[in-house]
Amino acid sequence: MYYIIVNPASKSGRGAKIYARIEPVLKEKAVSYEVFFSERAGHVITITKELCSRVPCSPEDPLKLIVLGGDGTLNETLQGISDFSCVAIGYIPTGSSNDMARDLHLPKDPVEILTNILSCKKPQCLDMGQVVYENTTSQLSRHHSSELLTVRYFAVSCGIGFDAAVCEEALASRFKNILNKIGLGKLTYLTIALKQLIAARKVSCDMYLDDSDTPIRLNRFLFVAGMVHQYEGGGFKFCPGANYHDGVLDICVAGDIPKPKILIVLPTAFQGKHYRFHGVDKYTARKLRLVTSAPLWVHTDGEVSMKSSSITLTCGQNTVSYTHLTLPT
Asked: 121 Cβ partners below 8 Å, 6+ apart?
């Protein structure tokens, strides 16, 4: 039995159209399934929680989920899982960014991905990140759901600062939906990024790697991203060395870089060439604690719920089972 969670609104209705393509395949193959359509932000968390509570499952006979949506839909799915050892996830990307699918080299054809899921005999486990919000503010994202969590999981990345501020504004943007419909959704992020860059204020940050008591001091920074995968933000290759099997976070730090220079640095990140510039640094750690001088937006896989001035990120090795993978050789 497969339980299918569909975000019909992903990429301005693309999710519903892709489900319409795969449903005949499910019927043709006489697959037993039950489908659920998300209706609002946070609804996927509720659906997943209910399934985990009512469907008997075990590590030997896991709950089989198929998720149709973007990175954010997959992120919400993770928040609703009570025991990851008893769940296997099939993922069919239908979002705007699809950074996880990009790193995993998933097929472009959703029917091919569905076929891979249905024929999978042994799911593969990938790393998963977790962020703990240690100091939050009352300022909530315009996109936040009723499921306001102070501990969140992430499959792709977690960032604080500029990248999260762009995500927060983009999630509430009507302009994004219009551009998505004509295939120009990335212009939304570019426009918002320029606006956020101009408005960015000076904030300092102390970074603690693993169990070190000695901070790495950033007198001013643009963003810090802890990443399981190589890409975030719709194709920015911020951590080209990231390995989703090693139990380690790859960390990209954009420090005290003059604002005009950022316009030169950011485009090079699409090819992972941004580390050639002074002020852009990389680290690796199993645990990362960040303390900022002012509360900033925090994102998990592009989902933003609140601001915080103190967060701790960790990485769990081979935590989540996926049935959809076509891994590079």
From this structure: none
Q: Cα–Cα distance between 11 and 27 in angstroms, integer?
A: 25
Residues 6+ apart with CB under 8 A from 264: 277
Beta bridge partners of 25: none
pTM: 0.90
Amino acid symbol at 189: Y
Q: What is the mean pLDDT of residues 58-71?
A: 95
Mean pLDDT of 10-34: 92
Q: Is the pLDDT of residue 174 over 80?
A: no
Nearest to 169 by CA among 190, 183, 155, 153: 190
E strands present in 162-276: 205-209, 216-218, 223-227, 249-254
Tokens 């029917």 identify what position?
111
Residue 51 and residue 154 in contact, taking contact as beta carbons nearer than 8 Å: no
pLDDT band at residue 152 under the 50/70/90 scheme: very high
CA separation for the pair 200, 286 (Å, rounded) = 29
Place of tokens 């762009």: 166
Q: Give residue 148's pLDDT.
A: 65
Report the distance separating Cα 183 and Cα 178, nearest Å.
9
Round to whole Å and give the CA distance between 313 and 267: 27
